[in-house]
């Protein structure tokens, strides 16, 4: 997710790099190197360079996209998919989903939007599994520190926006609030009434730590400029003249270079490849911070010799730290869509969302016996890199959570919400929030430019499929309320393909054949005790290293009943404080 203009000095360094005749140029003088200028990376870079004596280099594979309308237009969620600013990864054939492959998108230059933190107890669970210093109360100040909430206008309040002032910060760099083009008129009331008839109460502010019910979601958006807010707009462009911040664009980080590769390995820099194919090393006197996202941070560790010895050996990489959990615990959510046709043309954005718990969508809760069976199955499906007893413990924590946190999200959108011209089309996308299935991401080559092997292992645990099917049925029951029936008719999948009286098995089959990735991968360098399958400790430091941290979605040990960026910004804010505290 990056998109940056080059500072004069970094442009200069860049030019030196490109014109270098030698195969290896060494650059000294940085205190920190951050790999990845995405959501987390730019946040950390910004906070560290508040200290004028601290020099930071950010290495980003993508380019700046400052004025690409696909990025700046708040409604354009999807047009970037498949373009040069999407990495366009693809999963392996999914054994438990009919063998099909799934497109795995990841920003090589795109920004955030939906801004929902999740449930208080989900962050508290991070502390409960052994991460000292991590709880909702300890993270809340960082959620607030990142944001500058725009109080809704009278027209927005009329259109369904609502908020609770004490849940928000108003002096952070990241603009949040409601979109400029929020749909006016009666649609909000019609949709709220329909969800209300299914027992979903209105939520005043979904960012207060509880999300169950129906609400209009808040976004990362500069409302008055009507521009999507992202990490570059908030944390980089306004600060790009800082002389102690350098950004290398179109530059791939290959691997960490070690000055001491014995126990408690010490990183001295990062090997990079420029867009011209020139390989060099950049040095950092203090730390290397990996923020390349859930699909790449673990593979950079593997290329650097940190990971499962048997995987490293396959690719001839010598093992610096024996850490078999690197790249494991990959959790993504499955997403399905129902599309409707109305007789009314809608010209506004509808960021409407319902969060339901298992009672709401009529699903049973897992038993303890289920958990041990699932742990065995998930461990086996991932070569036992994280063993069944660790997984069973984690599943127990997760199963306790879904006894009271929502496990379903169903969003409601007009075509305009996705950037289409005003139209009669409206749709709901929905997903299971906390899947038990876990997969992995690993290197597939010793070439750092090669794509990783991504295997989310969707639906390894049948309960996930049944849950997604139950959520489909629940979302359809919303469309079957009288208010929604009067408003719209289903055009996809349509009642001929999925009848109104479809069985649970028919719903499951439809889910399995039509789902896509929800683009919320996390957990691949999880913050957990090492014995449980963790990769980083509670200061986000990689086990077995002195000065390498991971700061991004990879460290999140559980899924959220929210969207990831809100929490990633908060993690990055806290990480910056942890790093600064070590400077003295
Ligand atoms: C289409 C789509 C829609 C989404 N919508 C939302 C939403 O509405 N709300 C929400 O909260 N979340 C959303 N997400 C998820 C959200 O974007 C991610 O969870 C979040 O950006 C992850 O942040 P990160 O810091 O972990 O990684 P990223 O922001 O992905 O940053 C990683 C960066 O590292 C760079 N990089 C990777 N490998 C290398 C390398 N080897 N060398 C140098 N640079 C490298 C990448 O180019 C990227 O810029 C969406 C994701 C997608 C794909
Ligand atoms: C915007 O997205 C469209 C559709 O994917 C693509 O054709 C176009 O090239 C993109 N524009 C830019 C500036 O990237
Ligand atoms: C917050 O945003 C408002 C405009 O929405 C702006 O006037 C104000 O200066 C911003 N505050 C900070 C601290 O950036
Ligand atoms: C990055 O690469 C693209 C595509 O090759 C190029 O158009 C752009 O100018 C490059 N940007 C920088 C800063 O080198
Ligand atoms: C959508 O609705 C319009 C107007 O009611 C109708 O003309 C059109 O045929 C419908 N389209 C589909 C695909 O059902
Ligand atoms: C949307 O339609 C309404 C009602 O027709 C109109 O008042 C409003 O100006 C339109 N808004 C936009 C952004 O086109
Ligand atoms: C909603 O109304 C406000 C105030 O009249 C207007 O500025 C805004 O453009 C309208 N939004 C839409 C989507 O019509
Ligand atoms: C769902 O929420 C309702 C209302 O708070 C509550 O009564 C019920 O126990 C919840 N069920 C679960 C499984 O969380
Ligand atoms: C992994 O590498 C093999 C052999 O080079 C190749 O055939 C395969 O397509 C690669 N897989 C991925 C996911 O890139
Ligand atoms: C659904 O209804 C159709 C006719 O309306 C009937 O043929 C079919 O058997 C029913 N299916 C189930 C699962 O009840
Ligand atoms: C599972 O792994 C953990 C950490 O590696 C270890 O402490 C535990 O003994 C293992 N349990 C089994 C049953 O192998």
UniProtKB/TrEMBL annotation:
Assigned keywords, A-Z: FAD, Flavoprotein, Oxidoreductase, Signal
GO molecular function, one term: oxidoreductase activity, acting on CH-OH group of donors
Glucose-methanol-choline oxidoreductase N-terminal domain boundaries: 293-307
Span of the signal peptide: 1-22
Transmembrane domains' residue ranges: none
Enzyme active site: 520, 563
InterPro entries xrefs: FAD/NAD-bd_sf, Glucose_Oxidase_domain_2, GMC_OxRdtase, GMC_OxRdtase_N, GMC_OxRtase_C
Obligatory cofactor(s): FAD
KW Membrane (keyword) present: no
Family per similarity comment: Belongs to the GMC oxidoreductase family.
PANTHER family tied to this protein: GLUCOSE-METHANOL-CHOLINE GMC OXIDOREDUCTASE, GLUCOSE-METHANOL-CHOLINE OXIDOREDUCTASE N-TERMINAL DOMAIN-CONTAINING PROTEIN
Name recorded for this polypeptide: Glucose oxidase
Organism field: Lachnellula suecica
Lineage: Eukaryota, Fungi, Dikarya, Ascomycota, Pezizomycotina
């Amino acid at each position: 997710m990056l998109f940056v203009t080059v500072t004069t000095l970094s442009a200069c360094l860049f030019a030196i790099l490109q014109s270098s005749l030698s195969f290896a140029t060494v650059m000294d003088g940085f205190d920190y190197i951050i790999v990845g200028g995405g959501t987390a990376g730019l946040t950390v870079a910004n906070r560290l360079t508040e200290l004028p004596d601290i020099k930071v280099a950010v290495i980003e594979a993508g380019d700046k996209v400052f004025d690409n309308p696909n990025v700046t237009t708040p409604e354009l969620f999807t047009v970037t998919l498949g373009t040069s600013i999407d990495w366009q990864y693809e999963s392996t054939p999914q054994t438990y989903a009919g063998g099909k492959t799934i497109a795995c998108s990841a920003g090589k230059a795109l920004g955030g939007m939906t801004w929902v933190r999740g449930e208080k107890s989900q962050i508290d669970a991070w502390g409960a599994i052994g991460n000292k210093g991590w709880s909702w109360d300890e993270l809340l100040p960082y959620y607030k520190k990142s944001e500058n909430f725009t109080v809704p206008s009278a027209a927005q309040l009329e259109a369904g926006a609502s908020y609770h002032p004490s849940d928000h910060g108003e002096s952070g760099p990241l603009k949040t609030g409601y979109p400029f083009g929020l749909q006016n008129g009666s649609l909000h009331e019609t949709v709220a009434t329909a969800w209300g008839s299914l027992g979903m109460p209105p939520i005043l502010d979904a960012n207060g730590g509880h999300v169950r019910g129906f609400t209009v979601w808040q976004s990362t958006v500069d409302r008055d400029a009507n521009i999507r807010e992202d990490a570059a707009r908030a944390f980089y462009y306004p600060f790009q003249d800082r002389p102690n911040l350098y950004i290398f664009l179109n530059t791939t980080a290959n691997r960490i270079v070690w000055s001491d590769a014995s126990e408690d390995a010490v990183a001295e820099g990062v090997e990079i490849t420029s867009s011209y194919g020139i390989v060099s090393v950049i040095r950092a006197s203090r730390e290397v911070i990996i923020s390349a996202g859930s699909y790449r941070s673990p593979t950079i560790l593997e290329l650097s010799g940190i990971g499962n010895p048997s995987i490293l050996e396959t690719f001839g990489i010598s093992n610096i730290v024996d850490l078999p959990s690197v790249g494991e615990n990959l959790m993504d959510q499955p997403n399905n869509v129902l599309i409707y046709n109305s007789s009314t043309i809608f010209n506004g954005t509808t960021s409407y969302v319902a969060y339901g718990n298992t009672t709401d969508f009529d699903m049973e809760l897992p038993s303890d016996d289920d958990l041990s069976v699932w742990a065995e199955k998930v461990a086996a499906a991932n070569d036992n890199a994280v063993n069944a007893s660790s997984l069973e413990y984690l599943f127990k924590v997760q199963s306790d959570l879904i006894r009271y946190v929502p496990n379903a999200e169903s969003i409601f959108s007009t075509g305009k919400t996705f950037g289409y011209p005003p139209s009669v089309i409206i749709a709901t996308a929905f997903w299971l929030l906390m899947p038990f299935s876990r997969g992995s991401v690993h290197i597939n080559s010793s070439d750092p430019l090669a794509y990783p092997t991504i295997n989310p292992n969707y639906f390894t645990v049948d309960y996930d499929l049944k849950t997604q099917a139950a959520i489909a049925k629940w979302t359809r029951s919303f469309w079957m309320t009288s208010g929604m029936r009067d408003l719209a008719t289903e055009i996809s999948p349509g009642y001929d393909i999925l009848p109104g009286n479809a069985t649970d098995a028919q719903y499951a089959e439809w889910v399995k054949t039509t789902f896509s990735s929800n683009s919320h991968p996390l957990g691949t360098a999880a913050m957990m005790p090492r014995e449980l399958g963790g990769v980083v400790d509670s200061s986000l430091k990689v086990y077995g290293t002195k000065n390498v941290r991971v700061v991004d979605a990879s460290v999140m040990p559980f899924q959220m009943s929210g969207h990831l960026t809100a929490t990633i910004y908060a993690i990055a804010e806290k990480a910056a404080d942890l790093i600064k505290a070590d400077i003295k």
